[in-house]
Write a sequence for this structure.
């Protein structure tokens, strides 16, 4: 960059502004992976599953020095239901199974969709990787929230399985 714009002369670099139209390499990418954003998990056990970002860690943490996000999503999607089905069959087919996980940014693909369910009070890093009782309780709460949204008929795309 410096060689192209200024010819590599250090004194000239300090005094002169870069030419107009010169490429700026220190631009930062806008932060688009935010809580509520629907993402698709690309690798691992939940590959191809849709998830919602609960909390994002752009700078990383001490334990995980890379950018990652805490996501929660659907492991097992609800089956198709019709008006003619009996009530108990409808209840059985509208069951879903949730998951919560910390995922590296390079293993998720953001979509244009968002989901406005607040999981912050339910899901946290401690509950996802804590003891089994906490994990089970968290899964139940997430399942309840997702099932309520599914039965309302909102965010239909999120509750349909990806076909690929």
């Amino acid at each position: 960059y410096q060689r192209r714009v200024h010819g590599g002369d250090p004194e000239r670099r300090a005094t002169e502004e870069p030419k107009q139209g010169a490429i700026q390499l220190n631009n930062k990418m806008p932060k688009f992976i935010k809580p509520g954003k629907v993402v698709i998990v690309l690798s691992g056990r939940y590959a191809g599953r849709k998830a919602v970002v609960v909390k994002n860690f752009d700078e990383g943490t001490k334990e995980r020095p890379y950018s990652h996000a805490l996501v929660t999503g659907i492991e097992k999607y609800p089956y198709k239901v019709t008006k003619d089905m009996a009530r108990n069959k409808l209840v059985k087919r509208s069951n879903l199974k949730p998951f919560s996980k910390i995922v590296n940014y390079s293993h998720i693909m953001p979509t244009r969709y968002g989901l406005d369910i607040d999981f912050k009070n339910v899901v946290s890093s401690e509950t996802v990787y804590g003891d089994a009782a906490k994990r089970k309780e968290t899964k139940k709460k997430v399942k309840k929230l997702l099932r309520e949204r599914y039965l309302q008929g909102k965010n239909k795309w999120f509750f349909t399985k990806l076909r690929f």
In short: The chain has five helices and five strands. The longest strand covers residues 68-76. The radius of gyration is 22 Å. The chain has a mean pLDDT of 82.
